[in-house]
Specification:
With about 190 residues, the chain is mainly α. Helix content is about 80%, strand content about 0%. The chain has one domain. Helix 1 runs antiparallel to helix 3, helix 1 packs parallel to helix 5 and helix 3 packs antiparallel against helix 5.
């Protein structure tokens, strides 16, 4: 199977996730800075989620640029990732309505942690199909950054029940680590040329 359809489908789903997320944002009831300041926590949660979804989209693009063949197992792993990511708008709304309570904060970590598992599963299936010497396999060798991020999500889920804002800080930290461009796949593609 070629990769174009899974890439197009993923692009579409991610565009819908981002659209739904922004449509869920509450609008201030007055046209002043005080009203806007009241909405600042949920605007920041939206920004973090937008960045997280963008990071997955960006990395997904690079992953599939380096992938020659896929099969049904890649499609299912990718759908698993998209399912969890699609829960982001729901979680942001829950965070807002609960005033950033512990359980919704843990759910935020669970959703993006499971999205990470879906991404890692997709990556593993691509390597299994394309071989241990494929571009993707050579680029991600061991995927330390991904495993550390997953462990940090687990820590954030636990931390959310004791100090929700510290869990939020950990989730922000994970995103900041991934904002630093991950050039492994691009560098491997350049070596091949």
């Amino acid at each position: 199977m070629k990769t174009e359809r899974v890439q197009a489908f993923t692009d579409g789903v991610i565009a819908i996730i981002i659209t739904i997320t922004v449509l869920e944002l509450p609008v201030p009831h007055r046209a002043d800075l005080a009203s806007l300041r009241g909405e600042l926590p949920i605007l920041l949660a939206y920004a973090l989620s937008f960045v997280n979804v963008g990071i997955y989209w960006n990395n997904h693009h690079h992953l599939f640029q380096a992938t020659k063949h896929i099969d049904g197992s890649v499609l299912w792993a990718n759908l698993f990732m998209l399912f969890w990511m699609s829960l982001a708008p729901w979680t942001i709304r829950w965070l807002d309505e609960s005033k950033f309570a512990a359980l919704p904060m843990a759910a935020y970590g669970l959703i993006f942690g499971m999205t990470a598992i879906g991404y890692m599963w997709t990556q593993a299936r691509i390597i299994a199909i394309n071989g241990r010497d494929s571009t993707v396999a050579r680029a991600v060798r061991g995927d330390r950054k991904g495993k550390i991020s997953l462990a940090a999500y687990v820590a954030g889920i636990v931390l959310a029940f004791f100090a929700p804002w510290l869990a939020a800080a950990l989730y922000i930290g994970i995103s900041l680590v991934w904002l630093i461009p991950d050039r492994r796949i691009e560098d491997e593609l350049k070596r091949e040329r």
